[in-house]
Design a protein that fits this description.
InterPro entries: NAD(P)-bd_dom_sf (IPR036291), Sacchrp_dh-like_C (IPR032095), Sacchrp_dh_NADP-bd (IPR005097). This protein has 14 helices and 18 strands. The radius of gyration is 20 Å and the shape is globular. The strands form 3 sheets. Strands 7, 8, 9, 10, 11, 12, 15, 16 and 18 form a 9-stranded mixed beta sheet that branches. A 7-stranded parallel beta sheet has the order 3-2-1-4-5-6-17, with helices on both faces. The longest helix has 18 residues. The chain is an alpha/beta fold. It has 2 domains: 137 residues, 3-Layer(aba) Sandwich (Rossmann fold); 204 residues, Dihydrodipicolinate Reductase, domain 2, CATH 3.30.360. Strand 10 and strand 11 form a beta hairpin. The N and C termini lie far apart (48 Å). Helix 1 packs across helix 13 and helix 13 crosses helix 14. Bound molecules: NADPH dihydro-nicotinamide-adenine-dinucleotide phosphate.
Length: 403
């Protein structure tokens, strides 16, 4: 039985808070704070209607550390769950340190003025969290999060070492819009327009954005073009599995998405350099994000499945030579919407945020310092995925991937 304070009131937060309320034996007291209190109230009303559970709501600017510390001291949670934006990671970690409370997030820190995300800033907090006797759990969404845990489960139960790893992220959902992103547009477009990077023979190799395309037949979706790109779990997976010869991340994009993104990029709309417009300074990407459909409004119209998983090749644990396994989850947009009022991209992130929170508050995952999910026992997390809406399958493939 524990008290949690969730920060942020977007799609991911909405799913996580609904799922926490459905597990009242673990999360007895749920508090939700964000920049716009009305969004917290909307989530709380839906949770009350669907589950009967009360959620307390607050307005907070998470970048104001003293205000965050006051809120944490007032609520007295055993865990702060950061489901705001990557820009708020460090101030929320500072507040947790000052208040002596555990921390969890789903995305690594990214400065506002540079399209660059990496763990170094958060890993640098390790000694301070250790000295304070508290835990920070980083990257407990789907990717990073479930893909990281999938990989470590394969390494615990199937493979002695991993030689090659491919993470395949397919969103086969159709929202009926010409161009929209499935999570925060600003974060999504910064991620997609960044150069691709993959791990090869002990170092990251950089290639131009969206230059490598492969068609793959995804179960539950059908054939889709997927593009090699950089994704943040590659950094932690390479750190904790340095023996990997190669690790890559692939994401599917439809031709319409690529067409729109190319035009927007060519005309400068995806830039994060401030420009002057009618005497006011604006950032083109933030303006674009403001005119695009809000991800949380796409739930009702999105149909189809997501299919996200890992294909790993390595030496089999049982000494039977080299083996290849494919481990994945397929999630239905319609079912996710029916259960929580949000589409599957928010669902597949919010459910693992709830499960990671359950691991920490129940003491199943513990430690003093800053940890990635790769460092924890995958088994209790994998059990909860099966029970709480993200069932997974594992199969042996005939051989390594040929792309
Ligand atoms: P949204 O943009 O829908 O929601 C973000 C929320 O954070 C909004 O409610 C916003 O407030 C709030 N917020 C922003 N700034 C502040 C601030 N300074 N103080 C307090 N609250 C603030 O994003 P999503 O729900 O789609 O994503 C949430 C997080 O999940 C992001 O960090 C994203 O990168 C991550 N993510 C991780 C994935 C994974 O698999 N690991 C996949 C998808 C997302 P307001 O409503 O006022 O704008």
């Amino acid at each position: 039985m524990s008290t949690v304070l969730v920060i942020g009131a977007g799609g991911v937060s909405s799913v996580c808070v609904h799922k926490m309320a459905m597990n009242a034996d673990i999360f007895s007291d749920i508090h939700l704070a964000s920049r716009t209190k009305s969004k917290c109230d909307t989530i709380a009303a839906s949770v009350k209607q669907r589950t009967g559970v009360d959620v307390a709501t607050y307005e907070i600017d998470a970048e104001e550390v003293p205000a965050m510390v006051n809120l944490i001291k007032k609520v007295q949670p055993s865990l702060v769950v950061n489901l705001a934006l990557p820009y708020q990671d460090l101030p929320i970690m500072d507040a947790c340190l000052a208040a002596g409370v555990d921390y969890l997030d789903t995305a690594n820190y990214e400065p506002k003025d540079e399209a660059k995300f990496e763990y170094s800033w958060q890993w640098a907090y390790h000694d301070r969290f250790k000295q304070a006797g508290i835990m920070a759990l980083l990257g407990s969404g789907f990717d990073p999060g479930v893909t990281s845990v999938f990989t470590m489960w394969l390494k615990k139960h199937k493979l002695k070492t991993i030689r090659t790893l491919d993470i395949l992220d397919c969103n086969g959902g159709d929202h009926g819009q010409a161009f929209a992103t499935n999570f925060n547009p600003e974060i999504n477009i910064r991620e997609v327009t960044a150069p691709a990077r993959h791990w090869e023979n002990g170092e990251f190799v950089e290639t131009p954005a969206m230059a490598r395309k492969v068609e793959f037949d995804f179960e539950g979706v059908g054939p889709k073009n997927m593009y090699m790109m950089y994704h943040e779990e590659l950094e932690s997976l390479a750190k904790f599995n340095p023996e990997m010869e190669r690790a890559r991340f692939w994401m599917t994009f439809g031709d319409e998405y690529i067409k729109h993104l190319t035009v927007l990029q060519n005309v400068g709309m995806t830039s994060i350099e401030p420009i002057k417009y009618k005497g006011k300074e604006i950032i083109p990407l933030q303006f674009l994000a403001a005119v695009l459909p809000k991800p949380e409004t796409l739930g009702e119209t999105t149909k189809g499945n997501t299919n996200i998983g890992c294909i790993a090749t390595g030496e089999a644990l049982d000494g039977s030579g080299e083996k290849t396994f494919y481990i994945k989850n397929i999630c239905s947009h319609e079912a996710a919407y029916e259960e929580t009022g949000n589409q599957a991209v928010s669902y597949t992130t919010g459910v693992p945020a709830m499960i990671g929170s359950a691991m920490v508050v129940q003491g199943l995952w513990k430690g003093d310092g800053v940890f990635n999910v790769e460092e924890m026992d995958p088994d209790p997390f994998m059990d909860m995925l099966n029970k709480h809406g993200l069932p997974w399958t594992v199969e042996e493939l005939d051989g390594p991937v040929n792309f």
